[in-house]
Amino acid sequence: MNYIIWITSTFVILSTQNCCCFVRTDVDIIGYTKWDGTGGVHTYLYCDDFCITPDQEMEHEQCCACTSKTCWDVAADDPSVKCGVTLLDCVIELTLPTKGVVICNGIDAHVTVTVLYRLQSNNGRLLYLPENICAQSNKLIHIDMSENGLREIDALKCMHNLDYLKLRNNRINHVDNTTFNSMSYLRILDLHGNPILR
């Protein structure tokens, strides 16, 4: 496994090898080049063509590692792009004032695209991760639960398809050494603003 970790930075970019791909996209997108990421794991990434021009100062792989986008992010920026993946939103339904469950709505069964989910619950009162978060682990690829009161994140160990995890400004003070071991696709991790003890 290869890990690139910038501890003093806001973002941590992780990359691993020897994993099976959970989603593959093979569409051509104008202005982007298909890029599989470090180790060939991320078969849904696109690198801005800027990275392959002689004018850019960074080496090609480094440039792509820092600026690549998922096909669904490119499609969100440009609705004319059809990459075969639809990203839908999940919500947290509160069961108690500081606890909740994840609700992800499906789409019509006749739709022939891959459906993935994003969970964003910012500026809330959550002290605990949703109790059913592991039930969503196959399709939930983006979590942003910043600005809550979360202290423990060990329950996220089951989220093996996560691409993006943002937990800024919570109350997390400890991260177990194994918390991210099964997250083979995790590219972006943001724990900025947490009182994590060394």
From TrEMBL:
Secretion signal, residue range per the UniProt entry: 1-21
ATP-binding is among the record's keywords: no
Keywords (A to Z) from UniProt: Leucine-rich repeat, Repeat, Signal
Pfam families the UniProt entry points to: LRR_8
Cited InterPro entries: Leu-rich_rpt, LRR_dom_sf
Domain of life of the source: Eukaryota
Spans through the membrane: none
Record PANTHER family: IG(IMMUNOGLOBULIN) AND LRR(LEUCINE RICH REPEAT) DOMAINS (PTHR24366), LEUCINE RICH REPEAT CONTAINING 53 (PTHR24366:SF96)
Name of the featured protein: Uncharacterized protein
Source organism (scientific name): Dreissena polymorpha
